[in-house]
Specification:
Length: 254
């Protein structure tokens, strides 16, 4: 039987919220992201690149949610169905008609992210917000459509250029936790590759990784609690970009 990334994810789902899972640290941050979103959204919410639609399930009853995705993304196997099919660089939405735009783990997959940010600025009402999550230290995913990573400085520049006032925070301020997450994912990927190559090395690697992975995850968490927070190597960034600057004045920022 051929073991794939998708089948491995399915087998590991029961332990997704335990240190036995290679993406344990990532799932811990997902809970925090959900809380952050619920505290920020309001009015008409446009979720661009909605994927499996997990955000729809956490939205407050007071908002009007619309999920948009691109057919190519849906074809990758994401569960759920968007309300509209569209390109992030050309949204079928009227000017100044939306209160909140979500771009969650989307910008890195666009070949022209500036157009998507410009579209978010176009459809948002003045005072509306664009809520963004982008990875920084995270493996390539959804290939071949994974094109770039940003620093916090690059994100500020990107949103300032399009009439936003961006406030950027790291989703993980604990470098040891980020390092543990990357190491655990690397262990899982290495084990998967060994299985797929049908190498006898799997007889040694599998039990070793089964012991090492939860240890790495727990040690990363403990060191994160013990050592000072630092923004030097975040796993990802969260951005609250408020549309404050009129479009005609956006180019004067620099």
């Amino acid at each position: 039987m051929t073991i794939t990334v998708r089948s491995l994810k399915r087998w590991l789902k029961p332990v997704a919220h335990t240190p036995l899972h290679p993406q344990w640290h990532v799932s811990r941050q997902r809970v925090k992201t959900a809380q952050w979103l619920k505290s920020q959204v309001c009015g008409v919410v446009l979720d661009v690149g909605c994927g499996n639609g997990w955000t729809r399930e956490i939205m407050p009853e007071t908002v009007q949610y619309v999920g948009i995705d691109y057919p190519t993304t849906v074809a990758l196997g994401y569960e759920g169905r968007p309300d509209l099919f569209a390109d992030a660089s050309c949204l079928p939405v009227a000017d100044k008609s939306v209160d909140t735009v979500l771009l969650l783990d989307v910008l890195e997959h666009l070949d022209d992210p500036e157009k998507a940010v410009a579209e978010a600025a176009r459809v948002l009402r003045l005072g509306g917000v664009c809520l963004v999550q982008v990875p920084f230290l995270y493996p390539l995913h959804d290939e071949p459509h994974d094109y770039q990573r940003w620093t916090n400085h690059g994100l500020k520049k990107l949103f300032l250029q399009h009439g936003f006032h961006p406030e950027i925070s790291s989703e993980s301020n604990y470098p040891c936790a980020t390092a543990a997450a990357l190491f655990s994912i690397a262990l899982a990927k290495g084990l998967l590759d060994t299985f797929q190559k049908k190498s006898l090395m799997v007889l040694i690697a599998a039990p070793l990784i089964a012991v090492l992975m939860p240890l790495v995850n727990v040690v990363g968490l403990l060191l994160g609690w013990m050592l000072p927070a630092s923004s030097c190597m975040p796993g990802s960034y969260l951005v609250v970009a408020k549309k404050e600057i009129l479009e005609s004045n956006a180019e004067k920022v620099f």
